[in-house]
Design brief:
By secondary structure, the chain is α+β, with helices and mostly antiparallel strands. It folds into two domains: 3-110, no CATH class; 115-270, 2-Layer Sandwich (Muramoyl-pentapeptide Carboxypeptidase, domain 2). Helix content is 54%, strand content 8%. The protein has 13 helices and seven strands. The chain has helices spanning 9-33, 42-46, 51-79, 84-96, 99-109, 112-115, 153-168, 182-196, 198-204, 233-240, 255-258, 272-281, 286-300; strands at 133-135, 143-144, 150-152, 174-177, 218-221, 246-248, 266-269. The strands form two sheets. A five-stranded mixed sheet has the order 2-4-5-7-6. Strands 1-3 form a two-stranded antiparallel sheet. Helix 8 packs across helix 9. The radius of gyration is 23 Å and the shape is globular. The structure holds zinc ion. Zinc ion (ZN) binds at residues 213, 218, 220, 266. Zinc ion binds at residues 213, 218, 220, 266.
């Protein structure tokens, strides 16, 4: 976290994650568990309110509550640039129970690197580097294509766990690219521009500071090209990665959302809680969930 002090927003995010959602929880608990839609003042009951009127009143109150919840989540999701239908689904779930908020709180308790948005609009400091990188070594359940691969410890452990499960299914995962420094990313982007031209480079390679690989939690499986989609690893990961806390960052058909073309080989470790959160509320699209978290935290810092 020392290095991150250069990025003024990050310590604030951590502070907000700890404090502000609790305040919102209080509001929601007040709404959900208050009896305004059910009970009547004692005087009215004592006066013998007609049954038909008594039945109508709670319904009115419920409609008010429903409108409040719907309005709030539609506003929140539109702030985050997330499709209307997802706001509707979350609002509907919130009318049943506050599970979404509880799960969000758990997600925010994870390391900042599990949920920090790093994309074309949101960069890391160019000299940022993770403080708990460990080497990926041969001898475990996965293969490596080179000896200098590193991931954050939690991501490396989750990779081993996932690779063991894949191996049990007869699928051998091979790691081809992991942590990359900002300087290394600059070299790669320059090479991409020289090789493919600027337009294509922008679609498949991040500018320095903007790569998830700099977080130490992103991994490219072998081969790092379209042929990966035809390997047994591709469907296995699609079906199983989120159980181990891994999430595909650049899914097919979402280039306008993520900024990158389909990269079936690129996964980011986000932790089990966030991976399930993404699948449950954001149709499996990591970018939407991270945009939501970013908007949630920005809103709280106003
Ligand atoms: Zn990648």
């Amino acid at each position: 976290m020392k290095i991150l002090k250069k990025a003024s927003t990050i310590p604030l995010l951590v502070k907000i994650a700890a404090v502000v959602p609790v305040a919102l929880l209080v509001v929601f608990f007040a709404v959900f568990f208050s009896n305004t839609g059910v009970e009547f003042p004692a005087g009215i009951h004592a006066g013998g309110l007609p049954v038909t009127v008594a039945a109508a009143l709670p319904q009115t109150a419920d409609l008010d509550r429903q409108a409040f919840v719907e309005d709030f989540w539609h506003w929140m999701f539109s702030e985050a640039g997330i499709p209307e239908r997802m706001a509707h689904n979350v609002a509907a779930s919130m009318l049943e129970s506050p599970a979404f908020i509880m799960e969000l709180l758990v997600v925010l308790q994870g390391g900042y690197y599990t949920h920090l948005l790093v994309d074309k609009q949101h960069a890391l400091p160019i000299d940022y580097s993770p403080d708990d990188l460990v080497p990926l070594t041969a001898g475990g359940s996965f293969r490596i294509t080179r000896n200098d691969l590193q991931l954050r410890r939690s991501a490396a452990e989750a990779l081993e766990e996932m690779a063991a499960a894949a191996a049990a299914d007869g699928v051998i995962l091979t790691a081809a690219s992991a942590y990359r420094s900002g300087a290394r990313q600059a070299e790669i982007f320059a090479w991409q521009v020289r090789t493919f031209g600027l337009e294509m480079a922008e679609r498949q390679s991040a500018r320095p500071g903007h790569s998830q690989h700099q977080l130490g939690t992103a991994l490219d499986f072998y081969p790092i090209n379209d042929a990966f989609a035809d390997t047994p690893s591709a469907p296995w990961l699609v079906a199983n990665a989120s159980r181990f806390g891994w999430s595909m960052s650049y899914p097919d058909g979402y280039e306008e959302v993520t900024g990158y073309r389909f990269e079936p080989w690129h996964y980011r470790y986000v932790g089990r809680d966030l991976a399930i959160f993404i699948d449950t509320y954001f149709e499996g699209i990591q970018q939407f969930a991270l945009q939501f978290i970013q908007a949630w935290q920005e809103r709280d810092s106003l």
